[in-house]
């Protein structure tokens, strides 16, 4: 049993426990001369159990309960047995007695005795023992309060519970063989065969998996990931790599999966795509690389358009921007018309001024000066908006003119399906079955291609010269193809499947789960990325998709915040302006107008409409007058009102002379 780790009921040290052990040892020495006291943790628990029942009975009887029994009709005497079950009786007050036991709280030899609502003891604990040559040795404790620890559990109950991994500690454990290193778990038997690993013998894209003269016999991106994951397993795995395929063309990956399912291989390691049909026969690990089918087609440079200067903005953006330019011109005219001579004159001149001022702000070259406070405030906010719009337009136009625009007559998988042109696929992959069975493309249209040279040749020749219109293949291969083709081709449309690469094990193999865990660990530690950079870093990187002009266009959604701020500022400025004009109009109205309206209440409706029309004309006149004239009129009216008051006061004094 050397190296075994076991658990034992923990009993805290106390004076009560030491006194009991001393009495027990003394009693045993009188009764027997044998060495040892025959004392263990179970004896202490038995002792506390007896006292628990005794104390519970004392409480039970103190409450006035009685002990009564009754026969149970369910207990019947069997004819073929000597056990007389019918003689057994049932304790009628058993449920109450059990409740009393659950409510007991006192300190015994095993520590505090108390039960929770689920009838479990509160704060149970165990000793963690390590069996050595000299016997069991305690290496720590376990309790449901803190988990594993090297401190006695009762010293930790006053602290908050902490079961985090970094606080789980035990003293050193001596394992079988007198070693301190934890064993790696189960191992393959020494007389058993090593793991048979099938590796596709590729003729293209050999950086993923290929034949080599090293001790393993194979090399590549997938092989390095498998080896790195194997090293993380808690047990050694003897293994041997076996190439699958004749080396003249890529082997069928479905056939390789069939060999694993037929027990000819234990695992398939390589660029094996995880698809539904294959998961019916084998167990895949966690994907170590994302993949998916994409369409690659020839591209050509798009012709430059004479209307390219309109492309930075969408149609909606142009319309909203133009409307705001006109609005700001009109608002500035309203706010400046009473103050600024440059915004006065004949109607035709004023309309031209509005248009000129509006669009000249685009270049910050407006010749008219703003005089009013509200006008300057509105113009300040608008010039800030114009600055942002100009900068965005310049940046977008620069991107459109400098980035090379490419176009292709194949727009994606949908346009490829509707055409009748040939499609290239990589020989041996699942792409052929996917196009035929899932997308219902005629098998006569699909052309298997063996290597990258055939890829490039078929794309360059095109369908008219015996080539293909496009190639459908997995994303990792396409990245390498585009890099080696000097970016003559691009992917069109979106990636239309989402899959990944994994290692295929036999069904219910325990290695599949362990290898998945190891792959996740490699990903978290950044080792997957290091292996990728080692094997899949290309000297010439290409952008995958054709860049669309719409990607650089600016929409209204990008500027609605600025337009909203402008609208709020304009509304506030116009509100203040209207309030001021109305206040001035009220002050300039004749004082007897109220009396006149009161006396004409019984007049005809025609006279009422005439009065309202006259008031509106007066308001328009106030709006159209210069601010200086309005101030002079208000000042003159104030003087006239003051003189009238003084005249009334003098007349009043003359009518009532003082008596001597």
Automatic annotation (TrEMBL):
The chain crosses the membrane at residues 313-335, 377-401, 559-579. The keyword Signal applies. The keyword Transmembrane applies. It is a multi-pass membrane protein. It is found in: Membrane. Keywords: Glycoprotein, Ion channel, Ion transport, Ligand-gated ion channel, Membrane, Receptor, Signal, Transmembrane, Transmembrane helix, Transport. GO terms for biological process: cellular response to oxygen-containing compound; response to wounding; signal transduction. GO terms for molecular function: ligand-gated monoatomic ion channel activity. Gene3D superfamilies: 1.10.287.70, 3.40.50.2300, Periplasmic binding protein-like II. Belongs to the glutamate-gated ion channel (TC 1.A.10.1) family. This is Glutamate receptor 3.5. It comes from Noccaea caerulescens (Alpine penny-cress).
């Amino acid at each position: 049993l050397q190296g075994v780790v076991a658990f034992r009921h923990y009993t805290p040290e106390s004076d009560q426990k030491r006194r009991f052990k001393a009495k027990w040892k003394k009693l045993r020495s009188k009764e027997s001369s044998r060495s040892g006291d025959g004392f263990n943790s179970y004896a202490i628990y038995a002792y506390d159990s007896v006292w628990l029942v005794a104390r519970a009975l004392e409480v039970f009887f103190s409450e006035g309960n009685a002990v009564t029994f009754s026969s149970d009709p369910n207990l019947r005497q069997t004819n073929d047995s000597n056990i007389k079950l019918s003689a057994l009786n049932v304790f009628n007050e058993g449920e109450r007695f059990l409740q009393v036991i659950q409510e007991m709280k006192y300190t015994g030899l095993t520590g505090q005795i108390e039960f929770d609502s689920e009838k479990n003891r509160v704060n149970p604990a165990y000793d963690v023992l390590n069996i050595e040559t000299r016997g069991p040795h305690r290496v720590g404790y376990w309790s449901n309060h803190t988990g594993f620890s090297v401190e006695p559990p009762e010293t930790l109950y006053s602290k908050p519970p902490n079961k985090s991994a970094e606080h789980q500690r035990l003293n050193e454990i001596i394992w079988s063989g007198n070693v301190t290193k934890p064993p790696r778990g189960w191992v393959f038997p020494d007389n058993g065969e090593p793991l048979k690993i099938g590796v596709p013998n590729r003729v293209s894209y050999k950086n993923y998996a290929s034949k080599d003269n090293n001790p393993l016999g194979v090399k590549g991106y997938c092989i390095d990931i498998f080896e790195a994951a194997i090293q993380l397993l808690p047990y050694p795995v003897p293994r041997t790599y076996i190439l699958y395929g004749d080396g003249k063309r890529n082997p069928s990956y479905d056939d390789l999966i069939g060999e694993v399912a037929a027990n000819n291989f234990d695992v398939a390691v390589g660029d094996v795509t995880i698809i539904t049909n294959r998961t019916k026969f084998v167990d895949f690990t966690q994907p170590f690389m994302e993949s998916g089918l994409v369409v690659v087609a020839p591209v050509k440079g798009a012709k430059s358009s004479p209307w390219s200067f309109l492309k930075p903005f969408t149609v909606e953006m142009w319309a909203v921007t133009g409307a705001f330019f006109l609005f700001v011109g009109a608002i500035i005219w309203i706010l400046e018309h009473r103050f600024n001579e440059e915004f006065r004159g004949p109607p035709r001149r004023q309309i031209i001024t509005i248009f000129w001022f509006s669009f000249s702000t685009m270049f910050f070259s407006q010749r008219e000066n703003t005089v009013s406070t509200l006008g300057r405030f509105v113009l300040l906010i608008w010039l800030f908006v114009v600055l942002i719009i100009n900068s965005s337009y310049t940046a977008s136009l620069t991107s459109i003119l400098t980035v090379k625009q490419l176009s292709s007559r194949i727009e994606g998988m949908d346009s490829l399906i509707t055409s009748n042109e040939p499609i290239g696929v990589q020989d041996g992959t699942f792409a052929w079955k996917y196009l035929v069975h899932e997308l219902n493309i005629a098998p006569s249209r699909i052309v298997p291609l063996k290597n990258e040279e055939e890829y490039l040749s078929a794309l360059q020749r095109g369908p008219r010269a015996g080539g293909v219109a496009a190639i459908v293949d997995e994303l990792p291969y396409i990245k390498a193809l585009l890099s080696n083709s000097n970016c003559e081709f691009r992917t069109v449309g979106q990636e239309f499947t989402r899959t990944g690469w994994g290692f295929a094990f036999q069904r219910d193999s325990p290695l599949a789960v362990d290898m998945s865990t190891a792959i996740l660990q490699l990903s978290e530690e950044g080792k997957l990325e290091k292996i990728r950079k080692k094997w899949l870093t290309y000297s010439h990187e290409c952008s995958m998709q054709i860049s669309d002009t719409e990607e650089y266009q600016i929409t209204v959604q990008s500027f609605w915040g600025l337009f909203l701020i402008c609208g709020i500022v304009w509304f506030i400025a116009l509100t203040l302006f209207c309030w001021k004009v109305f206040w001035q109009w009220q002050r300039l109205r004749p004082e007897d107008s109220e009396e006149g309206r009161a006396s004409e209440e019984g007049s005809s409706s025609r006279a009422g409409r005439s009065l309202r029309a006259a008031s509106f004309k007066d308001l328009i006149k106030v709006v159209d007058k210069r601010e200086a004239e309005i101030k002079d009129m208000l000042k003159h009216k104030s003087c006239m009102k003051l003189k009238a008051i003084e005249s009334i006061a003098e007349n009043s004094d003359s009518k009532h002379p003082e008596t001597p």
